[in-house]
Amino acid sequence: MRTPVFLLGDVTHAAKRTAEVARLCWESALTCGIMTCVHLLLTLVFTVSLGTPVEIHRPRGVPLTKRQFYEENKPFTCLDGSKTIPFDRVNDDYCDCKDGSDEPGTPACPNGSFHCTNAGYRPTFIPSSRINDGICDCCDTTDEYNSGAKCENTCKDLGRKEREVLQKMAEITREGFLLKRQLIEEAKKGKQEKQDKLTGMQDNKKQLDEKVEAMRTVKETAEQPEKEAKERHLKAWEEQMAAIRLEKDKAKMAEAFLELDDNADGVVSVSELQTHAELDPDADGTLSETEAQGLMGGADQVDTSAFESVWTNIKDKYKSESQPVESAPVETPGEEMKEPVGDNDSEPYPEEDISEEDDEEEDEDDYHEEDDKVRAPPSIRTPEKSQEDEEAMPPYDAETQALIDAAQRARDDFNEAEKALKEADDQIGNIEKELSFDFGPDAEFTYMYNQCYELSTSEYIYRLCPFNRVLQKPKYGGSETNLGTWGAWSGPENNKYLVMKYEHGTGCWQGPNRSTTVKLTCGKETVVTSTSEPSRCEYLMEFITPAVCQETSNTDPSTHTHVEL
Amino acid sequence: MAASYVSLLAVVLLFFCLSAHAVDRSNFKTCDQSSFCKRQRELEPGQSPYRALLDTLELSNSRLALQLINDNNKVRLLLELYRLQGNMTRVKINELKPLKPRYEVPDVLMADPLTEPLSVVVQDENGLVLSLGGAEQRLILNARPFRLDIIEGPQVLMSVNSRGLLAFEHLRARKDTISHKISSTVGSMWDSLKSIFSSESNSEETAGQENVGQQTDEIKEDEEKPGMWEEVFKTHSDSKPNGPSSISLDFSLPGVEHVFGIPEHTDTLKLKNTDGSDPYRLYNLDVFQYELHNPMALYGSVPVLISHSTERTMGLFWLNAAETWVDISTSSAGQTMFGKMLDFVHGSSEAPQTDVRWMSESGIIDVFIMLGPKPTDVFTQYASLTGTQSFPPLSALAYHQCRWNYNDQEDVRAVDQGFDEHDIPYDFIWLDIEHTDGKRYFTWDPSKFPQPKDMLQGLMDKRRKLVAIVDPHIKVDGDYKIHSEIRSKNLYVKNKDGGDYEGWCWPGNAGYPDFTNRDMRAWWSSMFAYDQYEGSMENQYIWNDMNEPSVFNGPEVTMHKDALHGVWEHRDVHNLYGLYVQKATADGLIQRSGGVERPFVLTRAFFAGSQRYGAVWTGDNAAEWGHLKISIPMCLSLGLVGISFCGADVGGFFKHPSAELLVRWYQAGAYQPFFRAHAHLDTPRREPWLFGPENTALIREAIRQRYALLPYWYQLFYNTHHTGQPVMRPLWVEYPEDFAVFTIEDEYLLGKDLLVHPVTDEGAKGITVYLPGKHEVWFDVHTFEKHAGAQSLYMPVAMSSIPVFQRGGSVICRKDRIRRSSSCMESDPYTLYVALGSQGSAEGELYIDDFHTFDYEKKKEFIHRRLSFSDGTLTSRNLAPDSQFSTSSWIEKIVIIGGVQPSSVTLTTADGAETALEFDFDSETAVLTLRKPGVNAGADWSYITFFIVFLHIHPPESVTVERLGKIWNYSM
């Protein structure tokens, strides 16, 4: 607020003034009517009798600051210097000056302005088009001197109210500013703490890095003997299994020989082999003599010992005459294909969740749901062991088991270290992110970070989470709508920290994405005081916070009000 | 405001979005999809089956009646001809004996038109010749085929049925359900039996039995055409209980190449040939996101066509409220047929000709042929039939601020405040549908507008006003007074089965009051009483939207044609519905003030005669340059047919205008009769100060120009109210012989003295304006630069340019003290702008009254003066000596443009005392400004005489003073 240049005018002798006013009054009576004149005289008498200071005499509508340009009975020069006119053309209800300066008290000039003294309140200028337009603009009623409008002098009232408001405002501002100082202190401290913490965390991270590396070595060291022991164990088991398989194969071979040797002459002939069409190598449906001979290594017939080499040629295709077709290997893949279906059943999504999501425009949560859906199936069914493996591998021996346990411990330790490192990384990231925000020139907005402020209206709950986003949640069911995520400070040039802009909220049908402008004003608390939607999908929030309180000058607020009679 | 999307129930939303999302032409019928139009248009010209039965001629003093017979089906028609006062001829054709009465449009004509005597000049077996009164006008009636020609001297002015396209689908009994079930052979036998039977029972003397076979064939042929007894469009079925009933007639206009009118269409001012395209359609429809340059129907219909040539201006008024299509075909006269009887007529075969054909779905043929001969005569003639533009309160001519929607009382207060803060005048703020309690009209949303009277009082304290929307669809809700009363009074439109017709609109399920019913209208009017319409006050006015009527789920987004208004089908009355809604509303506003106050009601749907009830606007346009441009021909077309109070949504309703478009639109809108900014709910806010200080200043200046000219606007509306001459005029109206101006539609005249050529092109650096009139001079109103007439002038433009020219020879009264509303300016002084013509003279008018009541009419309380300047003398003559009114306004300044420097100027008062007036002469612009004449514009006028003395001798050294006469001349 500006300090007034002028206070009260100098007090001249009442008698002289009476004469002046009377004459002026008579002049104005020509244009404004007798009533005005009488009124003026009465005012004069009244003010003189009270002995209060009286306004300096000057043409209607002229502010004190310009009084010297309007010298009675001397030609008047338009304030822009464009023209000089006789003084009786000042306020004669005809516009002579291009700048409107000859008609400060009439509506004649399109660009004129009228000065209301508004004694008891704040003096003001109004466009001269508002003189005598039937609407009371000046609280001292001086703008409606000839329109018939019934105006009441409300200046004292307004002045009192304004002083009260200013006082209250000043109080709030003072207190708010104290709070702001605290906030700044806290933010400073907080920032230092955070920075310290960050440094600490970064050190810690280094240690964690090292620890992870160390643990990795321990793990790897422990895993090597584990691996070897396991391999040994496996190898032994496999050897054992191979011997068993060999035995089985031999038995099968013998069985096959007997089956093939139809005439039981102790040898298998080409023709006997030809009865097994499934052995056909070119898959033309028949096993020709040549093909059979080929399978038999060129021999016409083989005995049991020579059959051994033939058996390796045919055993994959050979079908026993007595046994049914082996079907198991065909079925197994089929069962595996069914598995994902079964898995869905195993973990159903709560239906109400899905339907609720359907009602609403896409929300971030939606994507989470999507993520969940594509996330790995919760349990992968172990593939069925083939018949050959039906015999389980025997448990590890104690020595191997000890090695495994040791390795597992090393692995657990390593994982834990790695997790700690990741957590540290996250924390560092968060602190760095927080430190990167523009929390105001003195970081006074820091305290709002990670906070949310709510306002409940008849239909909705609005939630402002500064530096994050603005949300609107219907009171009676329905999901939240994003009214914008943090964009930038966008106040006026002289103080951008008076307005926050949140953008790119949920899209409007056939319209823009929702956005919110948050206007900040000084207050003792931090509260959202109102929300509105002035234009479709463009929201406006009023937000009070000590963080925008300005330091008050120590001058008494009442001196801001220019009191003039 | 519009058919679009908003918070309806989800079902409606879904339904409506689906149909409205795409700008869907398929929602609306083409001629081919409208079965009667298709049937009518299939008729070939040249084979009229109609013959006049001359022996049935009846001639009374002013009426000629004659039977026509269709030789194909022997159905007889009754032709009536009337000679009407003011050079008009009325042609009425109805069935002689219709099965049931056919609809004749009521309430559109002011009264039964006054007739003049008709006399038969010649009669023989081929026809007869009637005298139409003076000017050698004759009407020639040719009997076989039936045809009418109106001639003046040797000139054919107009021929009726010259192409033989008279077609009258007579009403016939509906086939009963049995006949549908029997075979076609049996069916046709049954038909022939039936027709024989019916012709006998009708005892038609001349229904010769030898023609029965032929007639049967014809009827059979008729009935085979689809759509005669039932018609389906999209999912909607029209049960057509009365079967086919359409009518058609053609008119030929020799020598005519330019025809205008039949609004409302988004098309050029000059109507186009419809050969090979759809005819122009007149069927009031809520067209979502309408397209430009299209003959499709729009919100309103005025079935009036104006023809113009250098020789003559004429009009055709087709009084029919059913769905109507108009075909227009312009060709050279050599290609058209002229009847034998006209061989003697000198017709220049080189001359062009325009053929016009009207087709309507039901009702009768009732045509008023307005014979001009000058444009002004046609306007007078049409005004004598349907009345003139209502005289609005002055504030309605000022600036209106609208948006769908101003959210709540606080929003209204803040916008009002914004205008004061930015020093922009406005008179009206508007509330769209969201202000109501759940789209229940006559109510207020209890949380957003809890104290409407406080809000209205706040506006009244600023001498401003409000318009609230009241639509004719009524929410079906037993707890809603308006609904339950209409239902209990049984005043809703009925569906074909006799129940209350219901359709979807903004409130969801809605009933539609039967406004064709006088009782309904009277009740509706009574609802505007202050004790009925709670929260309303005298500074609240009304807006009727959606009154086509719009029915979201109806065929073509309107009412089913088989819905019932009493005994009449909706088909018969459709185009009248909107007129009745506005009439009932305007009557209500008059009644609530005890008949004192002039109403102001805006309507979207309209018909011939709607001018009597208020203003119209061009509906839901878009923020596009093309829409800005088309607003001119659209309003010009409406002005030609009587509706002068027209405007388009400034800024465009749909979409978001660029700052440039918005500024240009304000500049254009400031010079159109109805000046309202409006915006769709989903568009960003666009109050004038939201586009940066530069644009705010440009918009402020445009609006201020409007306010300065309000005295001129007011006088133009007073004149149109009395004479029917349009306010906004195509150039040809004032320059009817200048062929060059006939198709101009990017500039126009306001009255006859202001020529406006708004800038309507994006990024325009200049415009080319045509200044009409060989003997005219025109003055740029901003620079006073003088230009000769009859030339095209290139003019560079800046963003601040609004090219406007004052005609030399005119006096225009302005109020140059702009205040925050027109009411605040009521007592302000006038400045007279006297633009001298090439003869050094000028004329103009000044009209003053109380600006809002009927006292100008009832108590003759007004001032109406003619201001004439000639031979250096400005005279004020009282044009209304028997009227009385006192004003406190005075003359603050007289600006004489295009004059010379005087030696002195003298004001002489009535008592003979002379005072020298100071003046200023700018030799560069040749503008003489008289300082503060100070005379009262009204009551004191006659006591003041005032002399002006000019220097007439050049060069100025040889000064000779001549007293040239009186300026303010006492003439009571």
Automatic annotation (TrEMBL), chain B:
Domain Glycoside hydrolase family 31 N-terminal: 80-327
SUPFAM superfamilies assigned: (Trans)glycosidases, Galactose mutarotase-like, Glycosyl hydrolase domain
Keywords recorded for this protein, A-Z: Endoplasmic reticulum, Glycoprotein, Glycosidase, Golgi apparatus, Hydrolase, Signal
Gene Ontology molecular function: carbohydrate binding; Glc2Man9GlcNAc2 oligosaccharide glucosidase activity; glucan 1,3-alpha-glucosidase activity
Stretches of the chain forming a coiled coil according to its record: none
InterPro entries: Gal_mutarotase_sf_dom (IPR011013), GH (IPR017853), Glyco_hydro_31_AS (IPR030458), Glyco_hydro_31_C (IPR048395), Glyco_hydro_31_N_dom (IPR025887), Glyco_hydro_31_TIM (IPR000322), Glyco_hydro_b (IPR013780)
Single GO BP term: carbohydrate metabolic process
Domain Glycosyl hydrolase family 31 C-terminal: residue ranges: 724-812
Family stated for the protein in its record: Belongs to the glycosyl hydrolase 31 family.
Protein name (Swiss-Prot/TrEMBL): Neutral alpha-glucosidase AB
Source organism phylogeny: Eukaryota, Metazoa, Chordata, Craniata, Vertebrata
